């Protein structure tokens, strides 16, 4: 399968550089680019990419609001990786809350960029678990959402356990060891959690866990 990529950045040299890097990969194709958020939203609707590489600071419409528009569409819409030069928790949380599946600094290596595209195209989330938990915890500790609480109430007792462990930053293998079950069983539970919430990926599920208060409940 060829991964279709859209590049949104207000700097032409950045767009060209990313296109050159990704075009050398046999499983990737750059289907378009955009120099601002408005163009990115229109291009995403026109080209239907699998992954959008989105800069945060762009004219006319910024990357965060463009991400919200793109991610509020169809459930099978593109995954968004936020690209920025700003290593800042506030930007990171805003990107995740907007629906992004990943966050990558622009000084990352070419290999990191390629890996990021593959990870989110396969339904993964591009963030180290410890970073994800730290940022979401900090941003949501004093926020609760009745909608998120209602969504979590649809989960079984075991699915709630799995979601709490996801919020702790554990991988599927680590969750399997903690619950003394097979990793395939954990994958099934995670898939059901994502479906019931509903959540685009693990990051969005963890945000729901924190906003609902589930991540803070005693074990």
Automatic annotation (TrEMBL):
Taxonomy, superkingdom: Bacteria
Residue ranges annotated for the Response regulatory domain, each copy included: 4-121
UniProtKB keywords: DNA-binding, Phosphoprotein, Transcription, Transcription regulation
Annotated GO MF terms: DNA binding
Residue ranges crossing the lipid bilayer per the database entry: none
PTM-bearing positions, type 4-aspartylphosphate: 55
Phosphoprotein is among the record's keywords: yes
Swiss-Prot/TrEMBL GO biological process terms: phosphorelay signal transduction system; regulation of DNA-templated transcription
All copies of domain HTH luxR-type, residue ranges: 148-213
Protein name: DNA-binding NarL/FixJ family response regulator
Organism for this UniProt entry: Pedococcus badiiscoriae
């Amino acid at each position: 399968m060829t991964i279709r990529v859209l590049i949104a950045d207000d700097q032409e040299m950045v767009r060209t550089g990313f296109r050159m890097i990704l075009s050398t990969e046999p499983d990737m194709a750059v289907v378009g680019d955009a120099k601002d958020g408005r163009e990115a939203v229109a291009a995403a609707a026109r080209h239907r990419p699998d992954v959008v590489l989105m800069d945060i600071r762009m004219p006319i419409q910024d990357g965060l609001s463009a991400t919200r528009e793109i991610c509020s569409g169809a459930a099978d819409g593109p995954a968004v990786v936020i690209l920025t030069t700003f290593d800042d928790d506030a930007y990171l949380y805003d990107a995740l809350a907007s629906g992004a599946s990943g966050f990558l600094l622009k000084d990352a290596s070419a290999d990191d960029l390629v890996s990021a595209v593959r990870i989110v195209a396969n339904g993964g989330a591009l963030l180290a678990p410890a970073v994800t938990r730290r940022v979401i915890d900090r941003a949501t500790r004093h926020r609760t959402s009745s909608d998120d609480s209602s969504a979590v109430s649809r989960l079984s007792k075991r699915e709630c356990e799995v979601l709490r462990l996801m919020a702790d930053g554990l991988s599927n293998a680590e969750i399997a060891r903690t619950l003394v079950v097979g990793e395939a069983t954990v994958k099934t539970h995670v898939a059901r959690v994502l479906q019931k919430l509903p959540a685009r990926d693990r990051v969005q599920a963890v945000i729901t866990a924190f906003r609902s208060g589930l991540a803070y409940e005693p074990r």
